[in-house]
Specification:
globular, alpha/beta, seven-stranded antiparallel beta sheet, 16 strands
């Protein structure tokens, strides 16, 4: 983990307040693993304001660049979207427990909205292609799927309003795929309800599911205990710190 100064190189605007931020951060790009995140201090806010956590969407050690995909939903992320190119940001990372990279069978990636962010970085590091299942409220919430297709991944989409793909939740196309009883391993990022549903389906099918939890974080380094999640291990149940013990947990570890 490095506390470093990163330079803002570009902001690529997507639909409906979504954006991809590109930073020059060679110390982080060289260490980053799929599933980890960075903690960013927004320079236009008061120094006392909290950093914001962002999943690493992509990282290139050769160029020293990293990307994050996010949605501007509050003061911090709206200020982030308004920063000019060349701005220096204080960034802490990479942080957290990454996804494993040796799946047993076909990788099934499941993303809800901008939960697709760490799944692209994961897709570029897995030893085989698989299926991306992605869901959102509308077509505007379905992000960067063409990038996966161009990389050789099959993509199955669900939207709650039926504006793109299957109408309903992302678990609908996932259920269709699981009905074939595949030898697969699941990797998911999104809201808790989706993660719980994905994990329960994997356990029922006798498959592993690696879930990236999204909890409100303050320090990002495991000191404040604000982002705890109840988990189980060989010694029983305990409280884990999502920022450093996670954010990735296997479905059987999580006590919902």
């Amino acid at each position: 983990m490095t506390d470093t100064t990163a330079t803002l190189l570009a902001i690529r605007t997507l639909a409906q307040d979504y954006a991809v931020l590109t930073l020059q951060a060679p110390a982080i790009a060289g260490e980053a693993r799929p599933g980890q995140f960075i903690h960013v201090r927004i320079p236009t806010l008061e120094p006392s304001r909290l950093r914001r956590p962002f999943s690493i969407y992509d990282a290139d050690p050769a160029t020293g660049r990293i990307e994050v995909l996010y949605k501007a939903v509050g003061l911090g992320t709206h200020r982030l979207s308004a920063l000019p190119v060349g701005t220096a940001l204080t960034v802490l990372g990479p942080i957290g427990r990454p996804f494993p990279l040796t799946p047993e069978g076909t990788p099934f990636l499941v993303g809800g909205g901008y939960g697709v962010a760490p799944l692209w970085f994961l897709a570029t590091h897995l030893p085989r292609k698989g299926i991306l299942f992605v869901g959102g409220r509308t077509a505007a919430d379905i992000l960067e799927t063409e990038r996966f297709r161009e990389a050789g991944w099959e993509v199955r989409v669900a939207t709650q309003d039926g504006s793109l793909g299957t109408q309903g939740l992302v678990t609908a196309p996932l259920d269709e795929a699981l009905a074939a009883k595949p030898q697969a391993e699941l990797f998911a990022c999104g809201p808790d309800g989706m993660l719980r549903a994905v994990g329960e389906r994997a356990i029922t099918a006798g498959l592993k599911a690696w879930l990236s939890l999204d909890k409100r974080m303050i320090c990002g380094v495991g000191a404040c205990l604000a982002c705890v999640q109840k988990v189980r291990d060989a010694d029983g149940e305990r409280l884990a710190r999502v920022c450093v013990d996670g954010p990735v947990f296997e479905a059987r570890e999580i006590v919902w």
